[in-house]
Design a protein that fits this description.
mainly beta, seven-stranded mixed β-sheet, four-stranded antiparallel β-sheet, 11 strands, 45% strand
Length: 128
């Protein structure tokens, strides 16, 4: 089953930085655009970023634009989310996923319904 493995989540103070990583398990992710999503307790899953298959095009939600940076690199196509100046409202479980429909290499939107192959997520807690 195609799935991602997310890592890097931890507790961090407000204003600090954190880097999340996402690696595919059992499929070639480099032909897909990859989205990052998060879900806070009691809230719906929110799309926050997407990167195209070649890494040349990115997309961000208004809530993270200017603070978070998505990138992808390496022979194993590790997708990273650099989180700077984090805020308590960034707390949640972070997931990555690939585009569901063709053209698979482009970011269609930040809607979770446009993505598939969800991992188990990694927990980020921003608190004093």
């Amino acid at each position: 089953q195609s799935q991602f493995v997310e890592s890097g989540g931890r507790m961090v103070y407000p204003g600090r930085s954190l880097r999340l990583r996402c690696n595919s398990a059992g499929f070639p992710s480099n032909i897909y655009a990859v989205g990052w999503f998060r879900q806070a307790p009691g809230k719906e899953r929110e799309g926050i970023s997407c990167i195209s298959d070649g890494g040349t095009s990115t997309m961000y939600s208004a809530s993270v634009r200017g603070r978070f940076t998505v990138s992808r690199a390496g022979a194993e196509d590790e997708i990273s989310l650099q989180m700077d100046n984090v805020r308590p409202e960034d707390t949640g479980t972070y997931f990555c996923a690939i585009t569901r429909d063709a053209p698979w290499g482009r970011c269609p939107s930040l809607s979770p319904g446009d993505f598939r192959a969800w991992g188990q997520g990694t927990q980020v807690t921003v608190s004093l």
